[in-house]
Amino acid sequence: MLGWLWERRASSFEVMSDLPRALRERLDEAFETGLPEVVRRTAAEDGAVKFLLRLADGVQVEAVHIPMGRRQTVCVSSQAGCAVDCAFCVTGRIGAGRNLLAGEIAGQYLAVAREAAFGPHDANVVFMGMGEPLLNTTNVMAALDLLEREVSNRRITVSTAGIVPGIEQLAQRKRLPNLAVSLSAPDDETRTRLMPVNRIWPIADLFRALRAWPLEPGRRITFEYVLVDAVNDSEAAAARLAQLVRPLPSKVNLIPLNESPEWLPGLRRPPVDRVDQFARTLAAAGVPVTVRWSKGLGAAAACGQLKGRETPRPPRKERGARSPHH
Ligand code: SAH
Ligand code: SF4
Question: Is 38 exposed, middle or buried (0-12, 13-18, 19+ CB in 10 A)?
Answer without folding.
Answer: middle
